[in-house]
Specification:
UDP N-Acetylglucosamine Acyltransferase, domain 1; Udp-n-acetylmuramoylalanyl-d-glutamate--2,6- Diaminopimelate Ligase, Chain: A, domain 1; 4 helices; single chain
Length: about 325
């Protein structure tokens, strides 16, 4: 997993001691067990544990086997709460609301009215004073490069591109009107409205030698990383949602939409106008035909087509039968 410092992108708002955390979330607490008292500085995911942090575990989440020293567990699952590996824990209702309370208390993100940035005007583009862009990289006019952004060597950022909450390695081209690091579509369906948006505290990581076409959007992750692997080619009008991980050497044609938390292996090929349901896993060397709808996991070396997407040879047989 790539590393980054969250505070470079989302400034620290405050630090919570355990008593303050309990007070903040008191109306949602069902049970609690607190052995250690420590300051809470950050939020962890189950794939990436951070010291002095809170880890939120939803119902039926597979429990990681990592060490939980100075990790405070918050869950809505009684079975997770009763796990003896966890010494500091809360059982709560409305887990999303508890996450939002704590995230907004710890960090100032760009969906918070308190968020600030400072810019220099260069080549008619606004470049954050808190960003880092290699001198060999070309930023065309009318771009906005936000707080914490890192862009490596020999990149080309074309007109009207917005980049925030992102780390971009070398030899990357991003075409006109694309937005990188925008807010992920995170909310509770029972609590709609802009003011109830679930805070998105992650970033986007773009590997080496990647090409991203015009009018694309790549959302930052909720807690960790949205990832686009080395040598990937993304056509125009493609949407990559929060927490998506795309492996190396992907080729994604125009108008594809990849829903949140999809994990995609290496050497992936997607035909145009294909759609991907959230939280699925796609193996290595997978080919998806144009206009397909992928709703389930795909094994390595799969070739699929149709909606719902099935083995491409079975799909062709079905088409022939329908035409008879």
């Amino acid at each position: 997993m790539y590393s980054y410092e969250r505070k470079k992108f989302h400034p620290q708002n405050s630090i919570l001691n355990i008593d303050e955390l309990l007070d903040l979330t008191s109306k949602f607490i069902i049970k609690r067990e607190v052995i250690d008292k420590f300051e809470v500085l950050d939020i962890s995911s189950k794939d990436r544990l951070r010291l002095n942090s809170v880890l939120f575990l939803k119902k039926r989440t597979k429990i990681p086997s990592n060490s939980f020293k100075n990790i405070f567990i918050i869950t809505d699952d009684i079975l997770i709460f009763e796990n003896n590996n966890f010494k500091n824990k809360l059982l709560v209702n409305h887990l999303d609301s508890v996450y939002s309370l704590i995230a907004n208390k710890l960090f100032i993100h760009d969906d918070n009215i308190l968020y600030k940035d400072e810019f220099d005007l260069k080549n008619n583009s606004l470049i954050s004073k808190y960003s880092s862009i290699d001198s060999s990289t070309k930023v065309h006019p009318n771009c906005i490069i936000g707080r914490g952004v890192e862009i490596g060597k020999n990149c080309i950022i074309k007109n009207n591109v917005v980049i925030k909450n992102a780390i971009i390695l070398e030899n990357v081209t991003i075409c006109e009107n694309t937005t990188i690091g925008s807010t992920g579509f995170g909310f509770n369906i029972n609590n709609l409205g802009s003011s109830n948006l679930i805070p998105q505290l992650g970033i986007v990581h773009i590997g080496k030698n990647v090409h991203i076409g015009a009018n694309c959007t790549v959302d930052r992750a909720k807690i960790d990383l949205t990832i686009i692997g080395d040598n990937s080619m993304i056509d125009n009008l493609v949407h990559v949602a929060h927490n998506v991980e795309i492996g190396k050497n992907a080729c994604i044609a125009a108008q594809c939409g990849i829903s949140g938390s999809v994990k995609i292996g290496n050497n992936f090929i997607s035909g145009g106008q294909s759609g991907y349901a959230g939280h699925i896993t796609i193996g290595n060397n997978v080919i998806v035909a144009a206009k397909s709808g992928v709703t389930k996991n795909l094994k390595h070396n799969s070739k699929v087509a149709g909606f719902p997407a099935i083995n491409i040879y079975d799909w062709k047989k079905n088409i022939i039968k329908m035409r008879k």
